[in-house]
Design brief:
This protein is of the alpha/beta class. Helices cover 31% and strands 16% of the residues. It has helices at 15-24, 47-58, 77-90, 100-109, 126-130, 148-156, 180-185, 231-236, 251-271, 276-286; strands at 7-11, 28-32, 63-68, 94-97, 115-117, 139-141, 161-168, 205-206, 209-210, 224-226, 241-244, 294-295, 325-327, 329-331. The longest helix is centred in the last third of the chain and has 21 residues, at 251-271.
């Protein structure tokens, strides 16, 4: 693949965040509307805002992808198709979908509409992708659980665009297949209402004995993905789009993430490699915004304790010193 065509894809949960992502250097933005989005608790965009977002972005040569990546109920089909018709008319660059039944219907009504198959669909093999040929899918968003070796094999054996996550939150299960939230509290991640039960505290009991303590109660909470150290390897795997997760994140987070990866990607495009200094600068900046500590993720073959942060699941914050003594006053 021509490296000049590698896309940096940013999230936006509000219009302010979208403008931040555009100005930080994103090539494309993915957003959700007020309906059928897997991030229902984000601010999201009403129809007037989507129209404004597309106009704002297209004037700056940035694409807009709109997520309709929940499973659709039968009684919602008419409203959903009306919504897709609206998006088609105002020039959305692609629709991100999960529901294969909806894909089948879209292709009958909107044969030329660009479709991206969502990570919620858990398409993770060349056999899966080949099964989509009859639906004229333009892009597959691969799961965060897939490895770089698997991405390479897929990209070599299919002619679809490949999108892969490079930064942001990880799920403890395969996206789209986790029923924990629905079973635990009646809120389905496949309907955009994940309660993030994997981020809560749990006790581990074996043979009637609790085997974890208060320092290791977040047994299901993954660290956040950060691939800045090896972004060149991901580019070389044949991906089309480098995706940052975070439609519920603040604009400061989006600015830092997009700008950091923009600088890394631009250097790679220009020189075919990335300097250690640029990687160090990116990591310094990325550590200053929201993270639950970082992992290289499954994509770079991390596993087990390198994925889960069992001691703390809130933002880690920036290290400013080490407490060496405490006696009413702190000395650092």
């Amino acid at each position: 693949m021509n490296n000049n065509k590698i896309e940096l894809l940013a999230p936006a949960g509000s219009f302010d965040t979208l403008k931040t992502a555009v100005n930080a250097g994103a090539d494309a933005i993915y957003i959700g509307g007020s309906m059928f989005s897997a991030r229902a608790s984000a601010t999201n965009f009403d129809n007037a805002q989507i129209t404004e977002a597309i106009d704002y972005s297209h004037c700056r040569n940035v694409k807009i992808y709109v997520a309709i990546n929940t499973l659709i109920k039968d009684e919602e089909l008419k409203e959903c198709i009306d919504y897709i018709s609206f998006l088609n008319d105002i020039g959305a660059d692609a629709i991100i979908v999960q529901d294969i039944g909806l894909v089948h219907l879209i292709r009958k009504i909107f044969p030329k509409l660009t479709l991206h198959f969502s990570t919620q669909s858990t398409i993770s093999s060349i056999e899966d992708i080949n099964a989509l040929k009859n639906f004229d899918i333009q892009r597959v968003v691969l799961p965060r659980e897939i490895t770089i070796g698997e991405i390479s094999q897929i990209s070599k054996n299919c002619n679809l665009e490949i999108e892969a996550f490079i930064h942001g939150a990880l799920c403890v299960s395969y996206s789209g297949k986790c029923l924990f939230s629905a079973l635990n509290g009646g809120r389905s991640g496949n309907r955009g209402a994940c309660a993030q039960v994997c981020r809560k505290k749990y006790l581990l009991e074996v043979d009637g004995k609790i085997i974890n303590d208060k320092l290791s109660e977040y047994v299901l909470s993954p660290k956040d993905l950060n691939t800045s150290n090896s972004i060149d390897k991901i580019i070389q795997s044949g991906v089309t789009s480098l995706k940052i997760e975070g439609r519920m994140k603040r604009k400061e987070y989006i600015h830092v993430c997009v700008k950091s990866y923009r600088q890394l990607l631009d250097e790679y495009i220009k020189y075919g490699k990335i300097s250690k200094q640029n990687i160090a600068d990116a990591n310094h900046n990325l550590n200053r915004v929201f993270n639950r500590s970082f992992t290289n993720g499954y994509i770079l073959n991390s596993q087990g304790s390198n994925i889960i942060n069992n001691s703390y699941q809130k933002p880690i914050g920036q290290v400013i010193g080490q407490v060496i003594e405490y006696n009413k006053k702190i000395k650092s």
